[in-house]
Amino acid sequence: MEIKIVSDAIQNVADEMIVVNLFEGIQTPGGATAAVDRALGGVISEAIAAGDLRGKKGEVAVFYSQGMIPARRVLVVGLGPQDRFSTEAVHWAAAAAARKARDLGVRSFSSLVHGAGAGGLPLEAAAQAVVEGTLLGLYRYQELKNEPPDRPDPERMTLVQFDPGRVPATEAGAQVGQIVAGATCLARDLVNRPANYATPSDLADVAVEIAGHFDRMRCQVLDEEDAAELKMGAFLGVAQGSEEPATFIVLEYNPDRPELDTLVLVGKGITFDSGGISLKEAENLDRMRGDMAGGAAVLAVMEAVGRLDLPLHVVGLVPATENMPGGYACKPGDVLTAMNGKTIEIISTDAEGRLILADALAYARRFEPKAVVDVATLTGACVIALGQGVAAGVFSTDDRLLARLQAASQSSGERIWPLPLYDDYLDRLESLTADLVNSAGRYGGVGTSAMFLKQFAEGYPWAHLDIAGMSFEERPDTPKRPAYLRKGGTGFGVRLLVQFLRDWVATGG
Ligand code: BES
Ligand code: MN
Ligand code: ZN
């Protein structure tokens, strides 16, 4: 989609449709919406007075201008209550408007920068959010369908900014929004893509392709032999149950600039989680193709890092393998030795994510990073604790790192909630035969999984994001669900982590 910025009063813009907005509970619209209302003889106020338009988040109402203004249609989109306004509401509203445009067959529309006026958001952030919401709302997974969708996407959106002095900031925000949304859609594609099209080798190909876009990016794909040389026994223990060769992906931006801060991102890349010998139940097992959502987010963030040309040494690590119950598969009771020498008794082969992350976290140490953040669809217990589609769990050994992630969560709209790393969880990981077990049963399952990872995240500040409840939207589209989400992969983590990295640059580490 082409995105343009113009300076004008929106009621004077000639386009197929213009988009204005309304806060919930407002009886008389203000600002640009008021100007359009006046130009249309008060039809918007009339709709509000009739109770047909309430300004609820993502609510849309279409009016026809009948020649009173150059644009043929006016779409009013709700922003929700003003006292609870945030970029999330902008994402939602922009997505709802864009989808309505598509449903109507509109090919080109012009929109206000929602939230930059009475909403009080910084203009750049508002423009970014409008573009992100638009592109995320229009997202569809089409790769394997023979028939094109019956409604094509709009070809152009123009952001309308009254004050010409504010055009450059709008442009800058829109540019970032396009990059972040593009990366999020890449992560969504990878999550939605069937496991037979997104094998560990396919993910490695994607990584190589990403690196090919940028001079400053390097990609190294370690195979199982390389991993064996590195003594990644935990990662290989998972891989040995599958016929599909595992890959350990290392993407680096700015590898040759030692003066820059080094940050490592680690993403769980289980391309299909059958549970292994501790086989899962059949119901909804297809969703376990999305068990590489953390890895997908990391790959997508690397693409965004390159496009934003961030002055950071960012390393993306994705241990990628299937978890299958093949003839060579790990068995409960088996003991594996991770790269840092720790021995692990396998209680459940379904607790495989922490095994591959253990070696990736140990590997991360060689970069002497300022911080390491891992992202993983790690536990059902996290979904039990926080809910499906509500928030990701975050654990950290470093309060400043945690605060940075929480700040990025606030401004990106991707919710995370802190959970504790009590030493009690370590007691639960005691093993009869090895240094620790890989699974400690149902109680506190999210805490014990994080405590397990902590045993391998040594020598740097570390944070862990459990995104099991956030990576895949299971419910069909309803007015209650944010319009920027579709059923399927969400790309969760991309917006959060890109914001985290941009903030790191802005605050100088
Ligand atoms: N990939 C799953 C976790 C998961 C569950 C992701 C639901 C997305 C939605 C993970 O590998 C797993 O199987 N975890 C087990 C751990 C248990 C065996 C200790 C779980 O959560 O049941
Ligand atoms: Mn599992
Ligand atoms: Zn898993």
The total beta strand count reads 20
What hetero molecules are in the model? ligand BES, manganese (II) ion, zinc ion
Number of helices: 15
**Major beta sheet, specifics?**
9 strands, mixed
Structural class: alpha/beta
Question: What is the subunit arrangement here?
Answer: single chain
Report low-confidence residues grouped into runs of 5 or more.
Answer: none
Overview of this structure, please?
The chain is of the alpha/beta class. It is built from 15 helices and 20 strands. The chain has helices spanning 31-39, 43-49, 87-104, 123-138, 167-192, 200-212, 224-229, 233-239, 293-308, 353-364, 380-386, 399-412, 424-427, 445-454, 494-507; strands spanning 2-7, 17-22, 60-64, 73-78, 108-112, 156-161, 217-222, 247-253, 262-267, 269-273, 313-323, 335-337, 343-345, 371-376, 392-396, 416-418, 436-437, 462-466, 472-473, 488-489. Strands 7, 8, 9, 10, 11, 14, 15, 16 and 18 form a nine-stranded mixed sheet that branches. Strands 1-6-5-2-4-3 form a six-stranded mixed sheet, with helices on both faces. Strands 12-13-17 form a three-stranded mixed sheet. α4 (123-138) links the parallel β5 (108-112) and β6 (156-161). α6 (200-212) packs parallel to α9 (293-308). The longest helix is centred in the middle third of the chain and has 26 residues, at 167-192. The radius of gyration is 24 Å and the shape is elongated. The two termini are 35 Å apart. The model has no long low-confidence stretch (mean pLDDT 97). The site of ligand BES has 15 residues, from α11.
Task: Tell me briefly what this model is.
By secondary structure, the protein is of the alpha/beta class. It has 15 helices and 20 strands.
